[in-house]
Amino acid sequence: MLTRFRRIAGAFTVVRWAALAFVLLLVVLSVLAPIVVPVDPLAQDVANRLLPPGAPGHLLGTDEYGRDVLARILNGARVELLIAFGASAVAAVLGSLLGLVGGYFGGVAEFLTMRLVSDVLLAFPPVILALLIVTIYGPGEWTLIAVMGILFAPGFARIVYGQTLSVKRLEYVDAAKAFGARTSTALFRVVLPNVTAPIIVQFSLVMASAILLESGLSYLGLGVVAPAPSWGGMVASGQRYMGNDPSTILVPSIVVVFTILSFGLLADALRDLLDPRARKGSHA
């Protein structure tokens, strides 16, 4: 137990603890948004439009339609996190399956999973491909989850493929085969549990990338459908009034930056925690 606490203390610096606290606070506030800010994020009040931060009843002010900015930030956080988590989960499942099959069987399976599927997807710029697909099928939460899940799957596939190539040569995998374990058992109960550490780290990184990509698509009007709150949409609408009220664009922009940075720092901490060799190398 003491050794485990020492590993956690070694992996989490003050900045990383702050990043973890920020992510947890954001999750809690997004879930409890109707209680924390009992204001309809879609309710318009043109008489109180573009109020500055600190205005009575509006901690972060209001936007060009008089909608409460804090309510839209927190409700938008719930949408952002759900989309990012859904896309990351889809990418993790698809990519891990491709990497496992390609790395374990090799040959034709490797060509089909890693060369024909993974490398082809990596050949296209993610933003351009996302724009193309969303333009064809239309914006929306489920479209974003599906598109980003497919776009980020090759990253998981490459990581799991490399780990599987190493793990499948180890003695306990040979022992499982010698005791008559079926191929599916060897894949999902012997190999997969031993390649989960890099999957967890990649999951955190993909969360950050998915939030950034979703915010960019929403900024262009191809993400979350207005008037539903989204951080990218708030940045897009706020830029028109930046001269009169800079907070309309600064507040959602700062939240996006801190969220992405926090998930990146968490990925570094998880890497050091789950892979002691990486921690030693980073401190060398």
From TrEMBL:
Stretches that traverse the bilayer: 12-37, 81-104, 116-136, 142-161, 191-213, 249-270
Q: Where in the cell is it found?
A: Cell membrane
One Gene Ontology cellular component: plasma membrane
The protein's superkingdom reads Bacteria
Name the keywords, alphabetized.
Answer: Cell membrane, Membrane, Transmembrane, Transmembrane helix, Transport
Enumerate the Gene Ontology biological process terms. Answer: transmembrane transport
Q: Locate the ABC transmembrane type-1 domain: which residues? A: 77-267
Q: Enumerate the SUPFAM superfamilies for this protein.
A: MetI-like
The question of whether Transmembrane is a record keyword is answered with: yes
Q: How does it sit in the membrane?
A: Multi-pass membrane protein
Pfam families named among the record's database cross-references: BPD_transp_1, OppC_N
Which family does the similarity line name? Answer: Belongs to the binding-protein-dependent transport system permease family.
What PANTHER family does this protein map onto? Answer: OLIGOPEPTIDE TRANSPORT SYSTEM PERMEASE PROTEIN APPC, PEPTIDE ABC TRANSPORTER PERMEASE PROTEIN
Q: What is this protein called?
A: ABC transporter permease
